C-alpha cells in the first residue's frame, strides 16, 4: 500500500511540474522608467542647475510627446488577445461528444441477415478498429487511464461580409499550453488544461458533466452525460468504437493520402431536445469518423452542430454552425494498446441569419502532442472525479461560449463578468497538489 501511494504521489508531482505554465517575462523600458540624467560639468552652480533643468525638460517633453493612440492600441491588442484566448478555450478546450456512450456495454454482434448493408459495414469496420487498437479483451481490461500532453492554440482568421482578416503571424502568436486527462471506467473523466495563463477544468462523475472557466465559474453541462471529445482523438479506442456503434457507413474518401471508410453518426432528436436551453435550440449534431482501410485505425474526426438562437426582441433568429475537424496521427503502442501521440484540429464558427450579408466566420486551430500515457494507475480513486461544490443551479448549454455580440466585441465577455473574472483570477492558483473542492481542480501550480 505504501508503494502504491508513493507511486501516485510521485506521478502527481510530475504532472504538477509539467502543467504549471511558465510566467511571462516582462520587459521594462529603462528610458521610460528612469528619470533624466542631467549633465554635470565644471561650471558654476547656475550652469549646472541650468543643465539639470534642460535635461529634465527634454525628458518631460519626451514623455508628453508619446502619442496616446499607441498606448490605446497596445491596450486594445492585449484585450483582443485575451478575448481570442477565451474563445479558444471555450470552444476547443473541452468540447463534448454528440451522444451518450457507455463503453461497458458490448458492441452489437456482426450480423448480415436482415441488416442494412450500411449498418453491417459499419459494424465490420468497428470490429477491425478494435482489433487494430489492441483487441476488445485488452481494451476492456483498462480500469483507468492517464494522459499528459502539450497543446498550441491560435485564432487564424476572421471573416465578415466586408473583409477577411488573416493572422499572418499565426505560428508566432499561438498560445502554448499543457493538459492532463484522467479517466476511470465507467464514464468518469477529468481534464485540466492550462493555456496562456488561464485554466479550464472539466469532469464527469458518471452522472453529471461539469466545467469551470475563469469567466463563467463552475456550471453543469446541459443534456445527457457525454464523453470528452479529446478522449476520442486516439486516446480511448473503446469509447470511440462505442460512440460509432449506431453509425452507418456512407462511403470512402482519401484523407492525407490514406483510403478511409466513412461512418456517419447523427444525434437523436431526444438528445438534441435535452441539450436545448431557453432561446438556444440545437437543431442538429452530426459526427463523421474516417477509418483507415490499411491500418483499421481512426485517423480523422469531423463533427458539426447547428444552433438557432431566437431574438429576444422579435427579430430574425441567428444561426451558429460549429465545425471541428481533427486529424489523428502518430499511433504507437502503449502496453499493447495503439494510442495516437499527436494531431491537429481546425475549428470554424460560422454565424449567419438576421439580415442578408451579415455573416461572420472565425477559424481557429490547435495542435497537440502526447508526452505520457499510463493505464491502470494505482491509487486513482473516485475522489478525483468529485464535481465542484459551487456549481450553479440549473445547467448551461455549450452555446454560452459562442460570441453573441457584433464584430467589435465578438470575443468579449459580458460587462457584468469583469469583476467576477478578476476575483477568480486572484484566487486561482497555489502550489498544492491537493484537490480544490470548490473549483474541482488539483491545483497543479499557479496558473498565472
Q: How would you summarize the topology of this molecule?
A:
Blueprint: H1 2-19, H2 30-33, H3 45-65, H4 68-92, H5 117-133, H6 136-140, E1 144-160, E2 164-166, H7 170-173, E3 175-184, E4 188-195, E5 198-205, E6 209-213, E7 217-221, H8 229-232, H9 237-243, E8 248-255, E9 258-266, H10 269-275, E10 280-292, E11 298-309, E12 318-334, E13 337-353, E14 360-375, E15 395-396, H11 418-427
Parallel strand pairs: 7-15
Antiparallel strand pairs: 1-2, 1-3, 1-14, 3-4, 4-5, 5-6, 6-7, 8-9, 9-10, 10-11, 11-12, 12-13, 13-14
Structure description:
The protein is globular. With 448 residues, it is α+β, with helices and mostly antiparallel strands. It has a 15-stranded mixed sheet that branches. The protein has helices at residues 2-19, 30-33, 45-65, 68-92, 117-133, 136-140, 170-173, 229-232, 237-243, 269-275, 418-427; strands at 144-160, 164-166, 175-184, 188-195, 198-205, 209-213, 217-221, 248-255, 258-266, 280-292, 298-309, 318-334, 337-353, 360-375, 395-396. The protein has eleven helices and 15 strands.
Tally the structural domains.
1
Helix content: 25-40%
Structure classification: alpha+beta
Principal-axis shape: globular
Assess the beta-strand content as a share of residues.
25-35%
Backbone CA Rg:
26 Å
Summarize the main sheet: 15 strands, mixed
